[in-house]
Write a structure and sequence with these properties.
The structure holds 2 protein chains of 2 kinds.
Chain A: H1 2-14, H2 19-31, H3 34-45, H4 54-68, E1 73-79, E2 85-90, H5 93-105, H6 109-116, E3 120-122, H7 133-141, E4 146-154, E5 157-166, H8 174-192, H9 197-228, H10 232-246, H11 250-259, H12 266-271, H13 273-276, E6 279-280, E7 286-287, H14 302-313
Chain B: H1 2-20, H2 26-36, E1 41-48, E2 51-58, H3 61-73, H4 77-84, E3 88-90, H5 96-101, H6 105-112, E4 116-124, E5 127-136, H7 144-168, H8 190-203, H9 207-220, H10 225-233
Antiparallel strand pairs in B: 1-2, 1-5, 3-4, 4-5
């Protein structure tokens, strides 16, 4: 069943491509992890499932890009309905920071790609100091030597861009670029071709919710970094560890920490969760704090929650 | 693209205020949003700390009825918005989906004259200022453009509510409304969010107050918000708990 769906997707996807392009992609399917590729295409078209989560969906795109292609990391920018580009997914913290860096400095391949709707590539970032003075330096410092940006585009509408980073310099494999573009295309079509009104409403609700969660997490990082004299990345790791230990979603934990309904003083909080750890729901209504051993009666299964925290943020924050 | 939209939206809010003959308030953002997004009416709920909010402004009787229905029934889009932190977009209240979501409210809202409801959280991360509700007599989705506008109106209403709350608490250091350089309000930027979180510790305040102090500092020193935030995150700048002592080390 899944396999059939995957095959059907591939046919549809390759039909508009050039004959040569189709051949290359098909070859890649065989040469690389064909099963994972088919599975990924199915996942990227299967937006009708009951528990569809747009952020998980976008993380599939970045994570699978790294698994399927010869790249070290991937990041994804998407235009929100306000018209602002936002970092919505990344395969690693380094990639996420670089995407943010591009937005903050208004410079870089992902922005060029989004604005032109065309792929942008740089085989050697050492040679791009003129094109992107600050981005090239920042990317090199993060350990990346080459970058490829692919548009998320359907006809005239560009909704975002997928950035692929590689640690070693050199041109990107042509078939990798084609497969990466195919993944981005399928994801774009899935996002734009919502079959009905409700799906489209849900998608926008989820995207905005996730973006606000991200803001809460950044605020909590700042608060914790200042309180304990940490770097932002250290503060993030600490928050993430606490969320995992307490079996809370990271955004939930971050909100409670800022509200002052949850204490996070290094190890001390973990040592006395019963008396100090009260979490609050996003609307502020307190609810009983989780005991050190997470109760099984939570609305989502424990494993799901932990996983969704990771997915929500890629590997970093 | 963004600053154009921000400028246009703030312009509409300011026009609404001058039409009314008063200072710019969140109520003006609510009224202007209803007109610009082309819905039938709008309401504004102001949050009171962590408590449930109160109905602050309505543009018509149906809006008032809808807001009251939610409070009476204990279910509905504004309450969901408060819980999830994300918007609720219910393009058709007549569907089974809407009935499942709000078993009592959906039908009551239809009878009250609403075919579609869109509710937006007035939030900046952990800062809760309230909810902006919009309804349309006939079902149908917001266009992407209208959704974008609605979100920016919600951003404007958020800032205006925060400023009003600050003023009510004896603050009033923050410039109100469009004079505060709306194009610079790129509140999503990670550094601004991080700096806001850091200031809660430096100033010993809540998160909303921390943001207001950050903005006030940028305004008073005629600097971009993002630049000031960058200095705070890089630990080149600290603000002092006493706002009148200058605050720069």
């Amino acid at each position: 069943m899944r396999h059939e769906a995957g095959a059907a997707v591939r046919v549809r996807l390759l039909a508009p491509d050039s004959r040569e392009g189709s051949a290359v992609v098909a070859e890649r399917v065989i040469r690389l992890d064909g099963e994972l590729l088919s599975e990924t295409f199915v996942e990227l078209t299967d937006t009708m499932v009951a528990d569809f989560d747009v952020i998980d969906f976008l993380h599939v795109l970045t994570d699978r890009s790294v698994k399927l292609l010869d790249v070290s990391a991937a990041g994804l920018l998407l235009a929100d309905p306000r018209g602002e580009l936002r970092v919505v997914a990344a395969s690693s913290e380094a990639a996420r920071v670089l995407e943010l860096f591009q937005l903050q400095n208004d410079q870089g391949p992902c922005l060029d790609c989004f604005r032109t709707g065309q792929p942008v590539s740089a085989a050697d970032l050492d040679a791009e100091a003129e094109r992107w003075p600050t981005f090239a330096a920042a990317a090199r410092q993060s350990g990346f030597a080459a970058v490829q940006a692919l548009p998320m585009r359907l006809r005239d509408q560009v909704i975002g861009a997928l950035n692929l980073f590689r640690a070693s310099a050199g041109a990107f494999d042509l078939s990798d670029v084609r497969v990466g573009q195919a993944l981005a295309d399928v994801a774009t079509i899935s996002l734009l071709h919502e079959r009905n009104l409700r799906r489209s409403d849900i998608l926008n609700e989820q995207l905005q919710t996730a973006l606000n969660s991200r803001v809460v997490i950044e605020q909590a990082k700042g608060k914790l970094a200042e309180r304990l004299g940490l770097e932002m990345e250290q503060a993030f790791s600490l928050l993430r560890d606490h969320a995992r230990n307490r079996n809370l979603r990271l955004a939930e934990l971050a909100q409670a920490f800022i509200d002052g309904t949850l204490t996070l003083a290094g190890q001390t909080a973990a040592a006395r969760p019963r008396t100090t750890a009260r979490t609050s729901q996003p609307d502020g209504r307190p609810r009983p704090s989780p005991s050190p051993v997470p109760p099984a009666s939570r609305s989502r299964p424990a494993a799901d929650r932990g996983q969704s925290v990771v997915k929500e943020l890629g590997e970093g924050g | 693209m963004t600053s154009d939209r921000g400028g246009r939206v703030w312009g509409l809010v300011a026009s609404q205020a001058s039409l009314r003959g008063g200072r710019v308030t969140a109520a003006d953002a609510c009224t202007a949003a209803a007109a610009a997004v082309q819905v039938s009416g709008a309401w504004l709920i102001a949050a009171a700390g962590l408590e449930a909010g109160y109905l602050m402004w309505v543009t018509d009787e149906v809006s008032e009825h809808l807001a009251e229905l939610e409070l009476t029934l204990g279910e509905g889009p504004s309450l969901d918005v408060s819980a999830s932190g994300g918007p609720v977009l219910a393009s058709d209240l007549g569907t089974g989906e809407a009935a499942r979501r709000w078993p009592v409210f959906a039908l009551a809202a239809l009878q009250a004259g609403a075919g579609a409801i869109f509710a937006f959280p007035l939030r900046i991360g952990a800062i809760r200022a309230g909810v902006l509700g919009l309804y349309r007599a006939r079902p149908g989705p917001l266009t992407a453009f209208q959704l974008g506008d609605a979100l920016v109106f919600a951003d404007a209403a958020t800032l205006l509510l925060l400023e009003a709350q600050d003023e009510a608490a004896g603050g009033g250091r923050t410039p109100a409304g469009p004079g505060s350089r709306p194009a610079d309000l790129a509140l999503h930027r990670a550094e601004i969010d991080q700096a806001t979180g850091m200031l809660t510790e430096q100033l010993g305040t809540g998160i909303a107050e921390a943001l207001l102090r950050l903005r006030a500092y940028a305004y008073a020193h005629d600097r971009r918000l993002s630049d000031v935030a960058g200095d705070i995150v890089a630990r080149r700048l600290r603000l002092s708990p006493d706002p009148y002592s200058g605050g720069e080390w």
